[in-house]
């Protein structure tokens, strides 16, 4: 229950973290090429 409420409160921050993770994955993929 605490985790669900925490995710609900920090939705915007989670979106930012996901976008940063996507950027890191893209940079990793580009580095391999």
Entry summary:
It contains two helices and no strands.
Structure characterization notes:
This protein has 33 residues and is mainly α. The chain has one domain. The protein contains two helices and no strands. The model has no long low-confidence stretch (mean pLDDT 77).
Outline the secondary-structure elements.
Blueprint: H1 2-9, H2 11-32
User: Low-confidence runs (pLDDT<50, min 5 residues)?
Assistant: none
Oligomer kind: single chain
Rg, nearest Å:
14 Å
| Number of discrete helical segments | 2
Distance between the termini: 43 Å
* Percent strand: under 5%
What order do the helices and strands follow?
HH
Main beta sheet: none
User: If you average the pLDDT, what whole number results?
Assistant: 77
Count of beta strands:
0
Q: Which bin fits the share of residues in helices?
A: over 70%
Shape: rod-shaped
**Which structural class should the secondary elements be placed in?**
mainly alpha
User: What is the count of structural domains?
Assistant: 1
């Amino acid at each position: 229950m605490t985790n669900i409420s925490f995710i609900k409160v920090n939705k915007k921050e989670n979106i930012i973290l996901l976008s940063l993770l996507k950027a890191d994955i893209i940079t990793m993929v580009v580095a391999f090429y």
